[in-house]
Write a structure and sequence with these properties.
By secondary structure, the chain is an all-alpha fold. It has one domain. The chain has helices at residues 18-34, 44-71, 97-112, 116-155. Helix 2 packs antiparallel against helix 3 (97-112). It is elongated and about 50 Å long. The termini are far apart.
Length: 160
Amino acid sequence: MADRIPVSAHAYPWKISDVVLFPAFAAGGVIEWLFPLHIPFLPAPLRWTLGATLAALGVGLIIWSKRALDAAGQPSLPGTPTTRLVMTAPFSFSRNPNYLGALTTGLGGALLVNAPWLIVAGLVAGAILQVWMIRPEEVYLRSRFGAEYADYCRRVRRWL
């Protein structure tokens, strides 16, 4: 039965974005400590304001998307079947607001502490999330919801 729909997008409970994000940002922090760089073109007050704003927006986006999933009775952790698409709230402008929020929070933190290697780590983490988390989720949702999901993908971008 090759066309059987999987029970969930990720069968393993440990297959969560934290498994990608925490090691990536930790590695970025170690590289920053060993080979420090600085962002010379942003004065500190502007960098702090921008960093704090991005970090707050990222956390807010995560909270908003988790609440939207909860309100719709849909899971945000692996191993639980998705029974309907959530296309409202932050899901109306990003198909992956949780990942976007986490990366935005990381970028904000990198600006706050003036650590360009953390920005690089965030970009690498985003690419890994794209392949390891997002693509399997898209395959699952496409197999589960067919034309409804295809239409949603035409209307809403993957990231922003």
